[in-house]
Amino acid sequence: MLLAVDVGNTNTVLGIFKGEELVRAWRVKTDPRSTADELWLQYGALVRDYKITALAICSTVPATLRELRTMIADYFADAQVTIVEPGTKTGVPLLVDNPKEIGADRIVNTLAAHTLYGGPAIVVDFGTSTNLDVVSPKGEFLGGALAPGIEISVDALAARAAQLRKVELVRPKNVIGKNTVEALQSGTIFGFAGQVDGLVDRITTELLDQFGTRPTVIATGGLAPLIIGVSETIDHHEPDLTLIGLRLIHERNS
Fold this sequence. Notes:
The protein is α/β, with parallel strands linked by helices. The chain has seven helices and ten strands. About 40% of the residues lie in helices and about 25% in strands. α1 crosses α2 and α3 (about 105-115) crosses α7 (about 240-254). The two termini are about 15 Å apart.
């Protein structure tokens, strides 16, 4: 079985694949201070009922990736390992000024989106940051937009405004909040949906000028469920997009 590991700045997502089927997935907190042995204690406990023969990994946290390499050498010595990094075959041309700047997760999402939905496409990844990744009809990564994530923005507002606080992130009954909690929820949920819709509309205009085809918009990431019911531009929700992309890249390199 294949263990796919997507290490993000806030959370790490792990998934077990049997062939093309995702049979189990977990989401755990990312701690860049964790050692290789601590990672094994956590990951090993989750996957102990599965026979892992291969791993596919992408990481936006260099410290965790370093410890993951040690963990693999110590505890998965016989497994076939694919790490998404320079030199790894992804099949995704990076049509940007500096390809080395592009996070591994954005490349993985591009491949998965084009494989599942074709192109052009826009992947909206709601994580620590909100990433909009633009995919050409040929599956090329064209660039995109980056914005502060939902939780980062809420934390910053609570930290900088004396009379405001963190609130439960749920959709309020009305846009016009009748109290501080509802007003914060409205500004967060409807505000971020409006931000995404505005960016998608502008990107769509450029793609229509370039390719003459309207893109498919795919939402993913841990915070996507907060926005998908409010956004007017998201076509599909694929919570396992990055794990699927890791499986596809592993297959290309195995």
